[in-house]
Amino acid sequence: MAIRERRERERQERERLIVGAARELAEAEGWDAVTTRRLAEQIEYSQPVLYSHFKGKDAIMAAVAVEGFAELAAELRTARTSAAGPQAALAAAAGAYAHFAETRPVLYEAMFTNAVDLTFASPETPAALQEGFGELREALRPLAGDDDLDVRTEVLWAGLHGLMTLTRGGRLRPEGHQRRLARLLQGFNA
Amino acid sequence: MAIRERRERERQERERLIVGAARELAEAEGWDAVTTRRLAEQIEYSQPVLYSHFKGKDAIMAAVAVEGFAELAAELRTARTSAAGPQAALAAAAGAYAHFAETRPVLYEAMFTNAVDLTFASPETPAALQEGFGELREALRPLAGDDDLDVRTEVLWAGLHGLMTLTRGGRLRPEGHQRRLARLLQGFNA
DNA sequence: CTCCCATATCTAGCAGCGCTAGCAAAAGGA
DNA sequence: TCCTTTTGCTAGCGCTGCTAGATATGGGAG
After folding, report:
1. In this complex, is the C-beta atom of B163 within 8 Å of any C-beta atom belonging to chain A?
2. How far from the centroid of its chain's Cα atoms is residue B90's Cα?
3. Fewest CB within 10 A of the end CB: N or C in chain B?
């Protein structure tokens, strides 16, 4: 019976290989370059193998996105907990969010632009997503006024997300990034 | 020589037909359904005709997006100028922005998610875009503090954009929309 | 009125896409 | 050693954006 276990291990390893190849290819040449044929060639298997692991290409991208959510949450946590004082913690978390979106644009794209069917309600997926949201909330909690903390968190998140996507789309002046970030936080420190 | 003019007129009319067909098809079945073949069939011409008007499918989508920017700017202006008082004007403009994104999601998608090569610097395109930005700025001007008006406008825009895209992606609780909008504006009224 | 040429438009096809049916090969169990 | 199940492959379908080359159309000159 140990044979089944070995097979299952090899299978999971290959799944990791697929997700890793998709991420590498996307980060190197953009998501348009991630085709099932190139992916298959990269992992040295034929195309149909991909479909024995994932329902389709979207599911592979979603798997990459989930990786991204986990990393984002981890980096938010590190930034928040290693800052001195509530204001600094909030600034650090916001800065970490911006840094993540800037340095991993392709990952960010998979997380927020492409992965449409990666919602809150699903059983497994959104653990990392909600964890990231939770980090922002904890950064805001010490500064919370009398209004609902969740609402504040959502608005902060939206502000950060909007800044990053508009900047990336060339809609905002690139040089004003720090000032915008500071102005956004100004609305939450009070 | 009037023949050339008539031909040019017919040509522009057909171009309008293409853009209109693309928009209708997108609004009816989503952007994935907008293929060059279906577009050609809709306007009752063959596929290559499309390429005598636009460089490619992206350019057609960009033309639809430009239409969207013009409409958004007009609606922002109406909302802003028909409100009584600065606070109400800002709230009206923000509400109009949200209403636009909610009721014309496909158009909004073309404007902000797809049209990548629709930047600020181009000569013709962004007139409508900057006009919309200008409307938000004018809504903020009466409430401006001592910090830069452009920065405030960019942050407000980012907040609105972030709220709408996150909501549409199923990342925010749908029922909290009004509270989030109010909380966002709270950061600009003060 | 006829012919010519330029313009306008179409037919047909290329390379690539996501995805899958059906066959071949490998490997575990009797 | 043979059988059966699992595993992976080859080949192909219908679609995509886009284009080369052939064909039809229609205004201007003789």
Report:
1. yes
2. 19
3. N
